[in-house]
Amino acid sequence: MITLAAPFTEEKVRALKVGNEVLISGVVFTGRDAVHKYLHEGGKLPPGVNFRDAILYHCGPVVMKQDDGSWKATAAGPTTSIREEPYQAHIIKEFGLRGVIGKGGMGDKTLAACKENGCVYLHAVGGAAQVLAECIKNVRNVYLMDKFGAPEAIWEFEVADFPAVVTMDAHGNSLHKEVFAKSQAELAKRL
Amino acid sequence: MSELQNSLLELIRRTSAEIPDDVNQSILASLEQERKGTIAESALKIIDQNIQLAKRKSQPICQDTGSILFYVDCPVGFDQIAFEETAKEAVKLATKKGFLRQNSVDSLTGVNDGTNVGPGAPVFHLHQHRSPELSVRLVLKGGGCENVGAQYSLPNEKLQANRDLDGCRKVILDAVLQAQGKGCGPGILGVCIGGDRATSYEMSKTQFLRLIPDRNPNPKLDKLEQDILKTANELGIGPMGFGGKTTLLGVKICAANRLPASYFVSISYMCWAFRRQGVTLDEDGKIQKWLY
């Protein structure tokens, strides 16, 4: 198990390899379909959000307002990342992301952007909304909630020991490509 | 709050927070089988922890609380309109309480009004039967697994799939290959052979009402189910697509009549976070027993 703690530098990210299990600690921002489309079309990040050397989490959480006005993430697993494939490479490059957390993996464009810009894809366990919500120690802020609604908003989470697996590294390797090719070959033998 | 609304709220809460026992047993068995020290085993351990934690905290197993699918078997003369109205109120309340995420978006405006009620949401399948019993089954099916569902029209030249059971086998296994880990495997397949496009998909989903270890009473379909389960688990896709031994937990197949011109095979994929519960209700709407 490897600790990946803020600040998320290019050096730390480039040291990671496909198959590494990591525990992430620091600030992560959520962003999913609406945010990706918006940024890709030239939308500006709201004041207070900076993706430079940051980790973006493909997640639409359940977040409940507490009696004292603060927020609590009560369910927060990853959403399927491949939907952001048309946009992700641009956003990694343009905004300087060092990591993308999601599930299901991404395609060649994102893989190339990871290599070129020093970014990794971190696969969290899909559906594990409770285990992962427990790792969110503090909901620092929420942005674009009125525009996109709660699941699609940008949430700023402080996480500790958030578990994920590096499935696409900054060296052009993808576990998803590897498993697809192997499983395709195995299937061909059985048809 | 009416007794019926109260019962439906509890059905939603329990469906969202507690995995049914047959699914849980199946996941635990796959955890035993996975090679120790692999990322596949780690993923299954996290899944196991998550199941326990969600139940203990009475919180959603997965934040994507999914399409809300009600399957109701009701006696003749039952007021279906009143039932739907009450169920919609229960859904709104369950959303306020956080058992369901604000999960329903107006497709034209993009607006999410936060209620989970709107055109086509929730979904009701109401059927009369000649029994005084009222049973309500609920499936919450997340978008990740819904997106990897697939419908094939046979023959399919690319896959060399003809209009026979071998052709069905080929396209179902292709769906498993294409899904990889994107539907949050290990998954469960619900399949319908035949029907028109809409009923075929709809019937594929009714297969999720079956218990994982059950066997198909039709010997041909049973053989196909067992074959696909075994073959899929030899492909090495594994939990979350990380590689590993468990790609599927179950395969459930039904058949519907088709037109001579059409031959659809519809495959619905259910994630490991298989949220399915059911209750029988008495005349006042009070829960009599749990069905899973």
How many separate domains of chain B? 2
Kindly state the mean pLDDT of chain A as a whole number? 97
Query: Strand fraction band of chain A?
Result: 25-35%
CATH topology of chain A: fumarase
* Radius of gyration over C-alpha positions of chain A, nearest whole angstrom: 16 Å
Overall body shape of chain A = globular
Structural class of chain A: alpha/beta
- For the largest beta sheet of chain B, what order do the strands appear in spatially? 2-1-3-8-9
- Stretches of chain B where pLDDT falls below 50 for ≥5 residues? none
Question: Mind summarizing the main beta sheet of chain B?
Answer: 5 strands, mixed
Describe this protein's structure.
The complex is a heterodimer of chains A (191) and B (292). Chain A is α/β, with parallel strands linked by helices and 191 residues long. In chain A, 31% of the residues lie in helices and 30% in strands. Chain A has one domain (2-189): Fe-S hydro-lyase, tartrate dehydratase beta-type, catalytic domain (fumarase, Alpha-Beta Barrel), CATH 3.20.130. Chain A has helices spanning 10-14, 33-40, 85-95, 108-117, 129-134, 145-148, 175-189, and strands at 2-5, 21-30, 55-57, 62-65, 71-75, 99-102, 120-123, 136-143, 154-168. In chain A, helix 4 links the parallel strand 6 (99-102) and strand 7. Chain A is globular, with a radius of gyration of 16 Å. Chain B has two domains: 3-15 and 61-142 and 275-290, 60s Ribosomal Protein L30, Chain: A (2-Layer Sandwich), CATH 3.30.1330; 144-270, no CATH class. In chain B, 37% of the residues lie in helices and 21% in strands. Chain B has a five-stranded mixed beta sheet with strand order 2-1-3-8-9. In chain B, strands 4-7-5-6 form a four-stranded mixed beta sheet. Chain B contains eight helices and nine strands. With 292 residues, chain B is of the alpha+beta class. In chain B, strand 8 and strand 9 form a beta hairpin. The interface between A and B is large, with 49 and 52 residues.
